[in-house]
Amino acid sequence: MTFKQPQSIIYFIIIAILIVFYSCKKDDQTRLQAGWSSKDPIAIPVNARNHERNLGNLVKNPSFESGKIYYEKSSIKSYDLNGWKKVGRNIFWVNSNNEEFHVDEVFDGIHSVKIVRSNADETEKTGEGIISDYIKVIPGNYSLKLKLKLKDIYPNQTRLGTKMYDAVNIRLQYFDKNKIEISGEELNAFTNSKLDNSFKAFSLANYSHIKEFGWGEVFGKTANFPFFDGDIPDQARYVRIFIGLKGTGTMWIDQVDFRYTEQNFTLLERIKPYFDSSYLAYDMVFPQPKKMVKRNTIKYINADSSYYPVIVIPENASKYIIQNAKELQNYLIKNDSILVDKIKIRNRIKQDEYAAGHLIISIGGTNVYEQFRSNLPDSLILGEKEAYYIQQIDDLEKVVFVKGNSPEAYQHAVKSIVQLFDPKNAHFYSADIIDYPDFKERAIALDQFAGDLDELKNKMELLQFNKLNSLYFSWNRNYSNYPFNSVKELGNTALKFGAIVNISEYNDQPDLSALLKENYHNIILNSTDSLDCDEFNSDRKCSSDFDLINEIRKTIVQKRHPAELGFVPRWSNLSSIDKGYEDVYFYFYNLNQTINRDIQLYWTGSSRYSSSVDYADLNRIQLIYDRIPSYIDNSLIGSEKRFNSDFVRQYYAGKIRIQSLFDPYNLKTGNSFSNSSHYPKILLNLKELSSLETIRALTALGYFWDTEKYNTDKSLWIILNKLYGRNTAINLLYFNDAYFGLKEVCQKIENNGHQYKNTRVAKNFENSLKEYYKKLESDLDDELLKELEVYIAEIMRKYNSLMSTLE
After folding, report:
1. For the whole prediction, is pTM greater than 0.85?
2. Which residues contact 221 (CB under 8 A, 6 or more apart)?
3. pLDDT at residue 69 above 70?
């Protein structure tokens, strides 16, 4: 015993030291976190941010698949859901395998939650629903989304004539480190007014009632762009999610997702993980195909054996197959001078040549295709427009079959297959591809172009190669904003041209005869006043004239002009519609009574510069428009406007660094646009096609092609690599980081004065900015370099001015 007592004392001392150590460490961590802010996410250590992001969905039991049922005399008495608590009595745990429920009451799996309410008091504060367990969080930006199905939903204050407001009640409740609830009140710096940042059912709040709302993804949202939706209070360390019904009707809930977003990271932090990745030709195909299965790499040139690629087309090949075969031939020749006069286009190929060393590319219904068509996936491209496949079969390793279901499909196929060639090493990265676009019209609207005609044509060619198929211009008779006097000067191209024509009952009307001579494929009539009805100019008045639209349509029909006619209404986004009150209902009633149904209507989302569109937004605009509209996307223009106000820059100084000069396309839509047959057109609005805007537009084409697989950061990385090479791409991203880093610190100096830390950090960013610009000088084309020089000059003027006050 005498020997064990000192040993026990030693153990006690060690345990005491560990307790003190970890207590101090915890206290230090708590003090450190006290300075963290959602308005300055980059100041939070990157390891902490990465850890939070890597946790993924923070909701326990998000699809309600896990729970426990309690029985009484063989009947279900009650149940508990893992990770959730019930609030109220009229909440049911749906099991689609049980006869009392239907299979369509579940979005995925076999379970969901159903709320049924036949009565609701006007005085209710919460309603009935489910609330999550406590979810641990750190300051920053989080996204909330869920699948909802709704039927016969009415607000609980119908008697007072209100809209839905919070009849569908989705809320984030915030709690401090001691789990004491804190207020969700938040300043909207863009309106300089406070709002309830706990309320997350804004997408549904302006419905009058909801008769039926099939399963769709709804974003938990407090306000529209430009508000930074998703930021949580700085003191919050826990949240709980409440999803319920204050009104009457039936509500189904499934797949709740709550996670830390990319808005907590700089562009460099997001893309840096790609720097060390090894990308082969498969990975660099852009836009990424719907389905691609990698096969073996084939050496397609063997000069010693005189083996060169052979392109085979049908004997009675159509002109578009011949054209695409020549395009493939020219691509291979252009990238390898050895192949001049070596690559042949033939109408037939002999059977004994299959086993030879040639790489054979069969385009269309060739004799080799007819022999093996039973082994090819023709049936998989029948139901989609512009669909194609690139396919090999196991017995013919060096025969590649290319088949499309339209002339456009063959163009897409050739643009994809040329990206599988590596001319430097004479390798063909064979792959089986089945592919088609989500949006059938993938368009860009160009407000102006400062370069010459050849520059414009070069950029058109680049965009077309990446599967843009329409280009719109703001029409006026002399094309004063463009380097041409007629679109006919743009030459013979597969691009379809469209015109955006401003109209107003108060202004001179367009010269229709001059417009129709241009042979535009699409003409969009835009109520000029609608340009002023947006979230930055909410007090402007608007007007329009339906008679003029019908007159223009009548002329087009009489002249048998091929142009499709479209119209951007006076109220073309949900935010402006909600501010229009009763005028809106008269307007759209008259519109649908007056304007022919073959005129395509356009909208711009929940606001003019929408950064997201969920199913609730899409469903409501279809009810208002009484038709399925096409989408005009102003998101890339809006992102530039976000920090225009001095007050916003001061209030959100810590968010300046998450901006990007390259601003990859990032419209959040969930599965809203997944049904391509219902949503055929999307048009991206750009100011001008500068080098930076071209990069942004190219990333957007990846989304237009495949909304589900599109990856914002990977798309930008691929585009920068393709345009400038890996090393220059990296230098551009470091330059971008230094520029916005210096811009953010300059704003902080303006806000808080010359603190030593800020001036030291600013100097480091200045040095980095100059270092990476110097590296880029020898690698970039003059146009992009000049654009970067403008940004350097602008920030250095501000920086030098601030530093001069120190002397």
Report:
1. yes
2. 200, 201, 202, 203, 229, 612, 614
3. yes
